[in-house]
Amino acid sequence: MGVFITFEGPEGSGKSTQARLLYERLQATGYPVILTREPGGTRIGEMIRRIVMDLRHTEMAPTTETLLFSAARAQLVSELVRPYLNTGGIVLCDRYADSTFAYQGYGLGRDLDELQAITAVATGGLMPDLTFYLDLDVEAGLRRKQAARERADTVGAGSAQRPEWNRLDARDLAYHQRVAAGFAELMRRDPARWRRLPAEQPVSELAEQIYHEVEPLLRRVALLGSQG
Ligand code: TYD
User: Could you tell which of 18, 65, 95 is best to mutate to test the pocket of ligand 1, judged by most ligand atoms within 8 Å of the CB?
Assistant: First the structure.
């Protein structure tokens, strides 16, 4: 069994950047590693992502939303995450089940036991070895994300570089604050798995701290080409 690491945090916390930097460093060192994201990461999951993020889908019921995130997760775990972990590799994932507890549970008020049951079905009980929480004030995060979009517009960046503004970002500040409080509660309940790091520091310093936390787990992983 390999190593499973996830990244969580509010909008604009830079978790996707950090996940990519960790991926690049591990790959350059010669570790077997993949980087994926939720919702998405598979062909089917990316199709579900488009449905769930679409700003026009204002009529989407909370149950539908919850099941769609979980369906994308089920596909990701079965198609990508489990098979790769079984080869002894490292899987990095930008968001995972904790997001469902924080966003649909604490944010939307879905019953947490029910979410636990749905998540167990979707993941077969697979939980990360380590989860980073990039901590950032909710308002600052939403501002950062909007500023990044405006910058991308000014320089005429292609849509791939332009951070999306999705149906979930568009929810009100109180919602995002409930989500942040939810993450705090999740961390309190399972402190051994979480590493909470301040997001507002230079990108390279944060990357160093993350690598430092990951290093002890790397003993479990064989470098590529090192096995007979
Ligand atoms: P993400 O792609 O990480 O976007 P961002 O970088 O803007 O945070 O996540 C997409 C959105 O989906 C984000 O608002 C969090 C939300 N989400 C849920 O509500 N539940 C979930 O289970 C997951 C995985 C994400």
Answer: 95
Residue-range domain boundaries for the chain:
3-218
Average pLDDT over residues 24-49: 98
Q: Report the predicted TM-score, pTM, of the whole model to 2 decimal places.
A: 0.94
Spacing, Cα 155 to ligand 1 middle (Å): 26
Mutate to test the pocket of ligand 1, among 103, 138, 175 (most ligand atoms within 8 A of CB): 103
Q: Which two tokens stand for residue 35?
A: 């980087």
Instruction: Specify whether the backbone of 182 is left (phi greater than 0), alpha (psi in -120 to 50) or beta.
Output: alpha
Q: What is the percent of the chain where pLDDT is above 70?
A: 97
> Top-level CATH class of 3-218?
alpha beta
Q: Whose CA is nearest to atom 14 of ligand 1?
A: 168
Question: Residue 156: is its pLDDT beyond 80?
Answer: no
